[in-house]
């Protein structure tokens, strides 16, 4: 039940940014990663998101990564560029760079670090949208920015043409379901892409009416997510659930890193990069400071899950 | 895909406790409410849950309500009794009363008020289970008790036969999905009822493998939830989604109370009771102090939603 | 700078409730504990607070404990009784019992478990106050009840004669300071006792204008807190700070329990009881389920701190 | 009781960054602000902190502001430069710029946006310290970065010479007191500056052993904070408290902005800038998007408080 007015739909992996051991962008690995995604049939690429370590990268590194991604994608699918900075002007600066480099759309979060409320948040999205010619998606990720974008605010922004969609990483599927209906009832003609960021409930959210998904795990198994998506579109919910269950088990790789010495960011992107290294897609599982790469024992646990999932 | 080993499945409404204007249990209204539920074909009754205002009631009131519910149900469906108290011994006291009054199963939360961790929480469930002969379900409701029951802890408790299921009101459908698979993989033979407490994602969670639902809104529209459940069981996901969308819109009654002067507990149970009053099922929309009943303007907004949903 | 209008001032220990190994009230130990406190010169006794494990106790146990405390205190200092229940009517029931047993004042928190806002909270305090003839203190403990009592709400309740004071366990000394000034400016003639519950900043809060303290650690070292209080009253801030520093170090006993297997409630009251057992004041360090008593290794760490503090 | 080993002590205002109505740095206003501070006798200047809107500024704007501040300060007091970025390398880049521009010390927070734990946080501070020759202070501000720096971690970092001090904006004076003793006991010879960021408890924290304060309100009334500090140093605690009470009332200017349309960041820095404009120190109360400047009615409320405080 994807909206006919969703400009961005299907599987849009938030791709990681491969690094070499000196902390620079590993261009060859990034090219291979993008090519692998395209071969799997993904419907878009989300560059420089949380999985892309965007807040760890300098502007130069971001520009370089985005340039490589856009060149490798070569217009086959849209490239959505994350513009993730604490405040309005800095987001606009990244929006300008993304436009210049050829991105097809932008994603930004609520402001962060500074303590803001709904009025500041609304002003932020309006100001960013007004400053760019590209479509803007709102990234709802309260665990990182401390603000949950409310159903009412998002509906207002969609109805007003400020945002073209939402990437939901809020963990709040109840609100996501209510958002889908709220937009349908209050802004039926608006262009609206509702993308879930949750790897393990894509079937359920597609049933509920999502346009697609932005699953970090699709870095590792894009074919699985494309199959899952196709089953949903075909209305073959049994097949969708079976594929989703396989992917949900695969998602256990984020538990590979020792919880006594790592937290969320290390565990997620660290596992995705380690899996991609084990699969031969990227050369190194290096991550940005202050994260640390998964060690040998942890990589071994990732390998076990890849084998169970039939990927190795 | 309900587990064959789920003892409690289907639609199990957490029924409200009708009060008269003096704050006492309104027995006639409660009987009518239970009868309405049974006529709709619900698969169980959850008495004395959060929607049942259990923490507001004295032990005498709780005993009286449970007695009426069990008598009216007359064994047609199981009655699950909430035993919701801050600490272990007080829960056990309620478990004893529930057994004496004829309940078929118990539901309890993690301890609350006192600051506890996973070890205290595990000890709590084990001690309660050891003290009663009735099956015990864990109620995961971090917004009220400040503890999220982890997938690992719940799996351990299921595998060990400590709990027979979960009522998930955590808002975390991602973890709920992971729990479903974790139990399937680690305790495949265990009796396990996975019940979602979220009114607006029942179709999605049934697709994901839930055994059933405990939706507060089923007080108001049990027929709708039974239809939704039947569609899920039949694998008719289009019909399920359509029914769910109607119910999701109906759930907007929880927005009827003025947010400037009410908070969660007033807005939810207050709206359910007001709807039941408007539907002629119960006599008064009275709620316990310090909540307040919805006023005339707010009731008017509930009425509008009931009309939209085709219930009035 | 204690307000001349503070009815309750000085050191008011929130005494623990000694239990025997069967989980019953250990009356002889409780009597010794109260006597020890009185001999040290405390200015009041706070019975059935968080340190008193009140949410773990049945009404019968609470009545018994309060009875013993009031009888042993014998009118030498006021006894303030905690009435800590999730909702209004249940608090009123405890208020009635406390009045009947001879308490001099009551303490209650915001409602808990149910999700409430400022209106429900204000209605709660007003309804409890209206239902009792005893002075009522508000207990601000958001870590347990999820509601921070705002400076504005507390000022309104003081100005309106609803509450006679505050026990602040909010951890928010900034708000506590603002409350002291807000009451002075807006309700200069109101009876108002501002009691800090934080063991380690009593000198600082007395400097800021607090009426006194309700420190759990005073169970263990009432003499120290009386000396600290006397130094503050005398304006000897160097002596106050020196005594406070000694007590702050002693407070490290709450770190004695293994953090891998215990959380807040176990670590606090478990340590206080263990220290009292080591000091020969109470017979057992038993605590209520689902807490566990400190084990031998943990008790050894408490002993070390008692020795360092010159108490053993 | 300032530690003899505290390199940074006394009143160190976190100065605002005056903007012109086009959003650029207002150099003349910034010079006047710094001069006003120096004339009042402050003991240091904290540039580019939260009050300085650092996360809203581009690197060019930050460099310009820091340059002006350092030039105007002219070595009379140390200038501490905020290096506030989400991740390690980006902080190091700001540290390099700060060193180049002549700062005397650096302040950085825990990483933000990315979800990190204690290991990532410790690695972050160690990597930043290793990359710079300037002394580094840790900025504890969990409301902005979601991480509370624990007493144990801070003690370890002080003992290891990684950090030279702490700016505490955690709101947790209990932990701050414990930190003061923990460092005294575990790293008695370490250079350690313990600076409270809380405007309204400076007297109390100085009594507790703080080295000084970094109060945003000192932008508005540096003379008051210098008098307060001098009274503390002289042991004249009555005078300190009286001055603190006056400043605590003045701090009510942060309540001038309409809470229905503004949140924390707008209310704080917006009020400080408005007060400075009313006092004739800076030309405009402009703030960065998505914040908004206080309007006329709100400015009127700031004016009332300035008059009450004797500043107008």
SSE topology:
The structure is a homotetramer of 312-residue chains.
Chain A: E1 10-11, H1 27-40, E2 45-47, H2 59-73, E3 79-82, H3 88-101, E4 105-109, H4 118-130, E5 136-140, H5 142-145, H6 151-159, E6 165-168, H7 173-186, E7 193-196, H8 202-208, E8 212-213, H9 222-233, H10 237-250, H11 264-278, H12 296-308
Helix content of chain A: 40-55%
As for the number of domains of chain A, it is: 1
Largest sheet of chain A: 8 strands, parallel
Write the H/E string of chain A, N to C: EHEHEHEHEHHEHEHEHHHH
From the spread of the alpha carbons, the general shape of chain A counts as: globular
Spell out the CATH superfamily of chain A: Aldolase class I
Uncertain runs of chain A with pLDDT below 50, 5 residues or more? Answer: none
Q: Most extensive interface: pair and counts?
A: A-D, 40 and 40 residues
At the fold tier of CATH, the topology name of chain A is TIM Barrel
- What percentage of the residues of chain A does DSSP assign to strands (E)? 5-15%
**Mean pLDDT metric of chain A:** 96
- By DSSP, the count of extended strands of chain A is 8
Oligomer: homotetramer
Q: Judging by the overall fold, what is the CATH architecture of chain A? A: Alpha-Beta Barrel
Class from helix and strand fractions of chain A: alpha/beta
Please work out how many helical segments of chain A DSSP would assign: 12
The strand line-up of the biggest sheet of chain A is: 1-8-7-6-5-4-3-2
Q: In angstroms, what separates the terminal alpha carbons of chain A?
A: 34 Å
């Amino acid at each position: 039940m994807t909206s006919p007015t969703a400009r961005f739909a299907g599987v849009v992996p938030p791709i990681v940014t491969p690094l070499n051991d000196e902390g620079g962008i590993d261009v060859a690995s990034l090219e291979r990663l993008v090519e692998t995604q395209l071969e799997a049939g993904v419907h878009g690429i989300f560059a420089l998101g949380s999985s892309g370590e965007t807040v760890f990268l300098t502007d130069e590194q971001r520009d370089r990564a985005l340039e490589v991604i856009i060149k490798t994608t070569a217009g086959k699918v849209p490239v959505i560029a994350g513009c993730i900075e604490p405040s309005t002007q800095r987001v606009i600066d990244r929006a300008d760079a993304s436009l210049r480099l050829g991105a097809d759309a932008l994603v930004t979060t609520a402001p962060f670090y500074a303590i803001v409320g709904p009025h500041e948040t609304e002003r932020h999205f309006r100001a960013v949208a007004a400053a760019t010619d590209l479509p803007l998606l709102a990234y709802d990720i309260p665990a990182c920015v401390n603000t949950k974008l409310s159903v009412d605010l998002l509906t207002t922004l969609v109805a007003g043409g400020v945002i073209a969609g939402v990437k939901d990483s809020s963990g709040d599927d109840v609100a996501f379901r209510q958002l889908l209906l709220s937009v349908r009832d209050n802004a039926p003609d608006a262009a609206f892409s509702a993308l879930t960021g949750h790897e393990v409930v894509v079937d359920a959210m597609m049933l509920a009416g999502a346009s697609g998904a932005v699953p970090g795990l699709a870095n590792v198994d894009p074919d699985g997510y494309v199959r899952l998506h196709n089953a949903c579109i075909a209305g073959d919910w049994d097949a969708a659930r079976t594929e989703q269950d396989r992917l949900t088990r695969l998602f256990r790789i984020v538990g590979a890193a020792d919880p006594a010495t790592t937290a969320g960011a290390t565990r997620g992107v660290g596992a995705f990069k380690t899996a991609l290294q084990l699969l031969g897609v990227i050369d190194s599982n290096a991550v940005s400071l202050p994260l640390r790469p998964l060690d040998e024992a942890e990589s071994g646990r990732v390998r076990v899950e890849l084998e169970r999932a039939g990927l190795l």
